[in-house]
TrEMBL record, chain A:
<dbReference type="Pfam" id="PF12704">
    <property type="entry name" value="MacB_PCD"/>
</dbReference>
<dbReference type="GO" id="GO:0098797">
    <property type="term" value="C:plasma membrane protein complex"/>
</dbReference>
<feature type="transmembrane region" description="Helical">
    <location>
        <begin position="274"/>
        <end position="295"/>
    </location>
</feature>
<keyword id="KW-1133">Transmembrane helix</keyword>
<dbReference type="GO" id="GO:0044874">
    <property type="term" value="P:lipoprotein localization to outer membrane"/>
</dbReference>
<feature type="transmembrane region" description="Helical">
    <location>
        <begin position="316"/>
        <end position="345"/>
    </location>
</feature>
<feature type="domain" description="ABC3 transporter permease C-terminal">
    <location>
        <begin position="276"/>
        <end position="392"/>
    </location>
</feature>
<feature type="transmembrane region" description="Helical">
    <location>
        <begin position="21"/>
        <end position="45"/>
    </location>
</feature>
<keyword id="KW-1003">Cell membrane</keyword>
TrEMBL record, chain B:
<protein>
    <submittedName>
        <fullName>Putative ABC transport system ATP-binding protein</fullName>
    </submittedName>
</protein>
<keyword id="KW-0067">ATP-binding</keyword>
<keyword id="KW-0813">Transport</keyword>
<keyword id="KW-0547">Nucleotide-binding</keyword>
<dbReference type="InterPro" id="IPR003593">
    <property type="entry name" value="AAA+_ATPase"/>
</dbReference>
<feature type="domain" description="ABC transporter">
    <location>
        <begin position="6"/>
        <end position="227"/>
    </location>
</feature>
<dbReference type="InterPro" id="IPR003439">
    <property type="entry name" value="ABC_transporter-like_ATP-bd"/>
</dbReference>
<dbReference type="InterPro" id="IPR027417">
    <property type="entry name" value="P-loop_NTPase"/>
</dbReference>
<dbReference type="GO" id="GO:0098796">
    <property type="term" value="C:membrane protein complex"/>
</dbReference>
Length: 400, 227
């Protein structure tokens, strides 16, 4: 192909595009809508999955979770270990916890519940309990007779029609905890928390020191130590640095501690892949049909150009260029609108039962969707124009 | 000395629908000299347009041969036929067949543009030929902004801009009123007389045919008379 052929090709494509403004706008709008329909839904599902995981990380697991060896109940010398880990550059927070269970009682209601013993200030660095208090206040180190209670245990925060046994309590009311060793103590509700994660909002939280009081343990023990890192994806290198400290306990990354959430998020991702693939195929077909009709309508024009001596490759190239322009413009506009939507929803997240959800658009999905739609437009432009360009000139001009 | 610019030998065009064969052209052998203005006439369905399509390389005959300016144009590649149409032939259609997205001047210069000429050159060529057909003040109008007669004159300008060896016209006045028709035929006459343009025109109007140097009559796909 000569450079001059390219000039004629660009000229014909440009004239067709600029003269047929309504066609251009309609096709570009369809392309942009197709882009949005695929990416927006997928980004909500991805955001939902991310929020589920984040809820677990910020409530249950941290990015890394140190746990006792399988034949041990506790991590020993936990205070020193926390100090050592905190010295690793980049670590955002380290907090130790103790787990127990107790029967909680208020008036006539008794519920068996997990009880979490935390160090309130350290805990702020690894979890969101402190800023999830929806009534009352967060615990302080001095609170020896106070507890936090999860909203899932409080009747006034239950969904309408929910029949699960809950306490009819509010901040200031008292709850009695009876532990497995027979220790019983009455605590005042200092705050009610709600993170939005049903796996987290069913706990009773008391001060770390209470564990020694209740169980009489004097050793420096912890059930687990949570570590918060600057962001996800850095778990591997930090695990190695913690091992280098001589830690013999299990160091688990958050992904391995997700349990049912992993299955749920995995199911969401599969659903997302299926709907994404169907969406892409539908968009591909829609774009193909629209561009196909557009090019087929230009069959006569293609015949005329051939009749006056314009090379088939130039004609074909001009239509593929037009289709490519539709594709790229549509994808760019779709990207811009999507970015604006993401920006808007990052300021005003979607309120879902699990909490606020911010849609997430991965680079991979963005690239796949953009590339597929541009490919669809090229294919849709190529085949009908090739068919018309290969056609007998008289059939193309006069129909036949 | 007269020079043969078109020569056909036993030209045949058959359309086959299943087992049924329709002979649109049968055994047509003609010669046209350089600088001649030839009218091809005949009734509807006689095969006159089919003959023009074969001569203008818009279609391929089933049998026979066509020699244009000494070149065998049947046994050449499609790429060569395209090159031939661009450089050596011009075509005027009955229904103008302009590209609606291009202005008059763009419709005219798209073919010299494809010949690798510079912008100034092909724009000048287009302006000159549009001026010659009387459309100097309509160059930047789109086809939809022009009358039928004006569109046909743009079509003639497009056919002539590359200074083709032969200009083919397929019932160029069929969609025009009598005044515009006369303008078109006068233009053909002018280009034929002034620059010796070879013109082969299909028409069913006897008075238009009589303005040509020669009339070739076609009947039922056969050469009827040639005078």
């Amino acid at each position: 192909m000569q450079s001059n052929d390219l000039k004629v090709m660009l000229f014909l494509a440009y004239k067709n595009l600029t003269k047929s403004k309504i066609t251009f706008m309609v096709i570009v709008a369809v392309m942009a809508m197709s882009f949005l329909s695929i990416t927006f839904f997928a980004s909500i599902i991805d955001g939902l999955g991310y929020e589920f995981e984040e809820g677990m990380i910020r409530g249950q697991t941290g990015h890394l979770m140190i746990e006792p060896q399988e034949d041990e109940l506790y991590i020993s010398d936990s205070a020193d270990l926390v100090k050592d880990i905190r010295r690793i550059p980049g670590v955002v927070g380290v907090a130790r916890r103790l787990d127990a269970s107790a029967v909680a009682r208020h008036e006539t209601i008794e519920i068996g519940n997990p009880v979490l013993f935390i160090e309130p200030e350290n805990e702020k660095d690894v979890s969101d309990y402190w800023n999830s208090v929806i009534a009352g206040e967060y615990l302080s180190k001095r609170d020896t007779d106070e507890l936090l209670i999860g909203a899932n245990l409080v009747k006034s925060y239950a969904e309408e029609g929910d029949t699960q046994k809950r306490f009819d309590v509010e901040v200031g009311d008292r709850i009695t905890l009876s532990f497995s060793n027979g220790f019983v103590k009455e605590y005042r509700i200092k705050g009610i928390y709600k993170t939005g994660s049903r796996f987290v909002d069913d706990k009773i939280i008391v001060n770390f020191e209470q564990y020694q009081l209740i169980f009489g343990s004097t050793d420096d023990i912890a059930s687990n130590i949570l570590i918060a890192l600057p962001q996800r994806g850095m778990e591997g290198p930090y695990t190695e640095q913690i091992i280098d400290l001589g830690v013999s306990e299990q160091i688990n990354q958050w992904q391995t501690k997700m349990g049912a959430v992993n299955q749920f998020v995995g199911s969401l991702q599969i659903t997302n892949q299926i709907t994404g693939t169907i969406g892409l195929l539908t968009a591909f077909a829609t774009i193909y049909i629209i561009i196909f009709i557009n090019v087929t309508n230009k069959r006569k024009q293609i015949g005329i150009l051939k009749a006056v001596g314009i090379k088939k490759q130039i004609i074909l190239g001009s239509y593929v260029l037009q289709s490519l322009t539709y594709g790229i413009t549509g994808v760019i506009i779709g990207n811009i609108v999507m970015k604006l939507l993401l920006l808007l929803l990052s300021i005003h997240p979607l309120n879902m039962p699990i909490g606020p959800v911010i849609p997430i658009l991965t680079t991979e999905r963005l690239m796949t969707t953009s590339a597929t739609l541009i490919l669809a437009s090229i294919v849709a432009g190529f085949f009908p124009s090739k068919k018309a360009a290969d056609e007998n000139i008289l059939d193309a001009i006069f129909g036949g | 000395m007269e020079r043969t610019i078109i020569k056909t030998e036993h030209l045949e065009r058959v359309y086959a629908t299943g087992a049924v064969k329709t002979y649109a052209l049968k055994d047509i052998s003609i010669e046209i000299e350089e600088g001649e203005f030839v009218a091809i006439m005949g009734k509807s369905g006689s095969g006159k347009s089919t003959l023009l399509h074969q001569l203008g390389l818009l279609d391929k005959p089933t049998k026979g041969n066509i020699i244009i300016d000494g070149n065998d144009v049947i046994n050449i590649s499609e790429k060569e036929r395209t090159r031939f149409r661009l450089h050596e032939l011009g075509y005027v259609f009955q229904s103008y067949n302009l590209i609606p997205e291009l202005t008059a001047i763009e419709n005219v210069y798209v073919t010299p543009m494809a010949r690798n000429l510079k912008k100034e050159e092909y724009e000048k060529m287009a302006e000159e030929v549009l001026t010659a057909v009387g459309l100097k003040d309509r160059m930047y109008h789109y086809p939809s902004e022009l009358s039928g007669g004006q569109q046909q004159r743009v079509s003639i300008a497009r056919a002539l801009v590359n200074k083709p060896k032969i200009l083919f016209a397929d019932e160029p006045t069929a969609n025009l009123d009598s005044a515009s028709s006369e303008d078109v035929i006068n233009l053909f006459r002018k280009f034929n007389k002034e620059i010796g343009q070879t013109i082969v025109m299909v028409t069913h109007e006897k008075d238009e045919g009589e303005k040509a140097d020669r009339i070739i009559w076609v009947k039922d796909g056969l050469l009827d008379t040639d005078k």
